[in-house]
Amino acid sequence: MAIKVDEELCTGCELCVQICPDVFDMNDEGKAVVKNPADEDLECVDEAVDSCPTTAISKD
Q: CB 3.0-4.6 Å disulfide test: which of 5, 24, 27, 33 passes with 16?
């Protein structure tokens, strides 16, 4: 399973970073990125996916 962030949908609210800072970070454009895909099974990833206001984060 892989975590993906759709940069076109991401508004840069940083909620995912607040919820799961070991997995998500913000890039220079102010968009969320996956910094540590090895931690994709952390419980906080599911919370970040569910909490994203624009549904920019997905797990495939």
A: 24
CA neighbours within 13 Å on the CB side: how many for 16? 32
Alpha-carbon separation of residue 31 from 11, 28, 34 (angstroms) = 7, 7, 10
Given the candidates 3.40.250.10, 3.30.70.3400, 3.30.70.20, 3.40.1350.10, the CATH classification of the domain at 3-59 is: 3.30.70.20
Q: Looking at per-residue confidence, does 37 or 8 come out higher? A: 8
pTM across the whole model:
0.90
Measured distance CA(12)–CA(33) in Å, rounded? 10
